[in-house]
C-alpha cells in the first residue's frame, strides 16, 4: 500500500477526530504565548502572584471538567428530546463555579498581600467566563463537532495573546493575565455557542444529575490538580512569589509536552474503551505498551534537547531576569517531561480500560510518598528548590503508576490467555 493510500485510510478512520488534537494544540499555543508575554514583563513578584491565581483557576477547571464534562459527553448517546440544552450546561457550571471561585478569591485575597479587591473580583469573573467556555467546548466534542471546538480554541488563543500584549503595557501582570483570560473565554464562548446548533432540545441538566454523573470522576480530577499545583500553593503560602514565577516560567517551557499528551490521550480513550467493551485484554495491554514506549521516548528526546539548550532558550524566550532558574530548568528538563508522559499514558490506560480505582490508588500512594519530599525540598535555599519539589511529586507518580501498569498488563494477558484456553476446551467437553 502506498503512503498516500495509507494517509487516506487513516483520514477516513479518524474522520474529523484530528481536530480534537488540533484543538488541544491551539489552546496550548495560546496559553504558552500568554505566559511568555507576562513573564517577559519583568516583574517577577506580579508574575508569581498570577501563577498562584492560575493554579487556582486550574482547580476550578478540574472540578468543572469532572462534574460537567461527563454529563455533556453522555448526552451524545441521547436523542434530541432528551439531550440537555447548551444553556443548561452553562447554568449548571455557573451554579457550581460562582460560590467555589468566590471562596478561592477570598483565600487568595487574605493570604497574598499584593492582591487587591479588584484582583479578587477579576479572578471570580475569569473563573465564571472560563467555566462557560469549557462547558460549551466539552459539549461540542461530545456532539462530535471537533472542528467547531478547534475554531473556538483558535479564536480564543489569538484573542488571549493579543489582549495580554495590549494589557501588559498598561497594567501589572496579574491584571493583564486575568483580563486576557476573561476576554478570550467570552470570545471562544461566542464561537462555541454559535456552532452548537442544538439550543432547542427539551431536557434539562440539574445539579442533582450533575452530581450523580460526576461523583466518580471528581476525586481523580482533584487528585490530579493537587499533584500539579500543590507546589504553587506552598510557595504562595510562604510568600515566595519570585520562586513561584521561576517555576511557572520553567513549566511554561516544558508544559507543551504535557498538554499535547493530554490531547492525544483524550483522542485514544474511546479506542481503549471500545477494546475494553469487546473484552480484548491482550490488545489493550499491547496498545498501551506501545503508546507508553513512544510517548516516553519522544519526551526524553525533547527533554535532552531542552537540557542542552537551556541557557540560550531561557534567555531568548523568557528574558535575562530568569537566568537564576536556568540550572533548575536543566535539573528537571529530562525527567519531568518523561514522568508526565508516563503518568498521562498510564492514566488513560486505566480510565479507558475501566479500572479507575488503579488511578485513585496510584495518586493517593504517590502523594503520600512525594509530598513530604517536596516539602523538604522547599525548605532548602536555592532557585532549584521549587523545581526539585515538583520533580519529587511527579517522579513518585510515574514510579507508582508504572508499577501498577506492569501489574495490570500481566493480569490482562493472563486473563486473555485463560479465556482462549477456555474457548478451546469447550468443544472438547461437548464432544
UniProtKB/TrEMBL annotation:
Transmembrane stretches, start-end: 116-136, 148-168, 174-195, 216-235, 247-270, 291-313, 325-346, 358-378, 384-407
Principal localization reads: membrane
How does the protein's chain sit in the membrane according to the entry? Answer: Multi-pass membrane protein
Q: Where in the cell is it found?
A: Cell membrane
Q: Report keywords, A-Z.
A: Cell membrane, Membrane, Transmembrane, Transmembrane helix
Transmembrane helix keyword on record: yes
**Top-rank taxon, per record:** Bacteria
GO cellular component terms attached to this protein's record: plasma membrane
- Protein name, entry field: Polysaccharide biosynthesis protein
Q: Which organism is it from?
A: Pseudoxanthomonas composti
